[in-house]
Amino acid sequence: MSDLFQLNKDTDHLVSTDSNMPLAERLRPKALSEVVGQDQLVGDDGSLSQMIKAGKLSSIIFWGPPGTGKTTLARLLANETDLHFKAISAVFSGVADLKKVFAEAERQQQVGNSTLLFVDEIHRFNRSQQDSFLPYVEKGLVTLVGATTENPSFELNAALLSRAQVLILNRLDTEALDELLNKAEALEGKTLPITADARQALIASADGDGRFLLNQAETLFSLKIKDSLTPSELAKLLHRRMAVYDKDREGHYNLISALHKAMRGSDPQASLYYLARMLVAGEEPLYVLRRIVRFASEDIGIADPQALVHCLAAKDAYQFLGSPEGELAIVQACLYCATAPKSNAVYRAQKSAWKSAKQTGSLMPPQNILNAPTQLMKDIGYGEGYSYDHEADDGFSGDNYWPEDMEPEKFYEPVDRGFEHKIRERLEYWENLRDQKTG
Predict the structure, then answer these.
(1) Own/partner pairs for 346-349, CB < 8 Å, 24+ apart?
(2) What values do phi and psi take at 340, rounded to 5?
């Protein structure tokens, strides 16, 4: 056995004894069974376990947050399947590098070796560069394993996706992160100099990133700390990492969707949480406000007409005050919408009316409700027989306002909630009057 590696009795796998290597590298799993937090892939019934049992490894795209084991899994797959492992990063590679990689794969094939090509940050390659993989994947020269933190549906070519299986890696949960800390303590032969509460705070600060957690643990191991640190002392010593959030990528769309759904579900607490997630991470406040204004019409409508008024007032307040003072107005608008009665009757009415307008084309309204600004228009009947509703009983004439060649339709059907309950009663009252007149 190499002097650089030994069998650790506590962790039961080969670990590097080179103290100059980062802790995360020394703890890198040497078998699929040692990977933590990804049982859906490496458990007995996991996708990767099943592939290896079947002896057939397809091209794969690993999609998951940073520090969840994408690179490690690629290396382990090459070991498990006896494939020549070649790794490149799309951040540092171009067309010339790809040509060299494929040439090397051809040389390996000539001596009987197949190649597993691992491409880190594969979404960074442009469309034409992604297409360059296709012929080599199709003829089996390489088994492609790509890694991305971005949604493959948005960032990768459809042709490439059709030739690969997308496997999702979960952010590491508390149990998995705690297991990593246990492995680190076993390898170092000592416990972390922190209290139980501080340990939980350390795990929470990792935001599901195992590599970040081990780097923080390595810092703690390297310091000469006499007494166990409390959460507040730990916070002063270590900088808390910012949550992963790209304002133009999937995290952006996931959180705004969660905010919208939580408000629609009348959960003000969850709504405020997702609002905070976005604003704390640096989202543009006016973007969030635009979505809340839209929500006021789409999901509340006339069930509470004041919702739109409050949202527009919040927009004015934020533009007047700016951040951070103006963000309180955004919170107020969010909570107002989350606690308001809900109705999508306005939204459904718009969809139905727009559809009908497209289908019926240019049907003329009935002549009696058309203006007649010229004598010719009066002579041909424009405005003739129009009933002025204010002069009718109950201020309601009950006239027909639909084109003659079109049956009346119902677009707006108010729900029996909030202010729309009153509107529904009013519409039913007018409908009865109309039936009496035509009946």
Answers:
(1) 346/297, 346/298, 346/301, 346/302, 346/412, 347/297, 347/298, 347/299, 347/301, 348/411, 348/412, 348/413, 349/411, 349/412, 349/413
(2) -80, 155
CB 145 within 8 A of CB 74: yes
Q: Under 8 Å CB-to-CB from 306, ≥6 apart: which residues?
A: 336
* CA dist., res. 225 & res. 232, Å (int): 15
Neighbours of 73 (CB within 10 A): 25
| Cβ-based neighbours of 118, under 8 Å, separated by 6 or more | 71, 74, 75, 78, 85, 86, 87, 88, 145, 146, 147
Neighbours of 109 (CB within 10 A): 16
Least confident of 17-21, 207-211, 337-341: 17-21
At 280, the amino acid letter reads: V
- Predicted model pTM: 0.62
Q: Which helix (H) or strand (E) segment is 167 a member of?
A: strand 165-168
CB neighbour burial string for 300-332, b if at least 16 within 10 angstroms, e if fewer = bbbbbeebbebbeebbebbeeeeeeebbebbee
Separation of alpha carbons 140 and 114, rounded Å: 8
Per-residue DSSP letters for 82-114?
A: TPEEEEEETTT--HHHHHHHHHHHHHHHHTT--
CB burial string 167-203: b at 16+ within 10 A, e below: bebbbbeeebbbebbebbebbbeeebbbbeebbebbb
The two structure tokens encoding residue 307: 């919702």
| Other beta carbons less than 10 A from residue 33's beta carbon | 13
The partner residues of 165 in beta bridges, in order of sequence, read: 60
**Pair 207, 149: CB distance under 8 Å:** no
The two tokens of residue 210 are 């195992």
Longest dimension (CA), the chain: 107
**pLDDT tens digits, one per residue of 51-75:** 998 888 999 999 998 889 999 999 9
Q: What is the CA radius of gyration of the chain?
A: 32
pLDDT at 394 over 60: yes
- Give one word for 352, left, alpha or beta, with left for phi > 0 and alpha for psi -120 to 50: alpha
The answer to whether the beta carbons of residues 268 and 339 sit under 8 Å apart is yes
pLDDT for position 164: 92
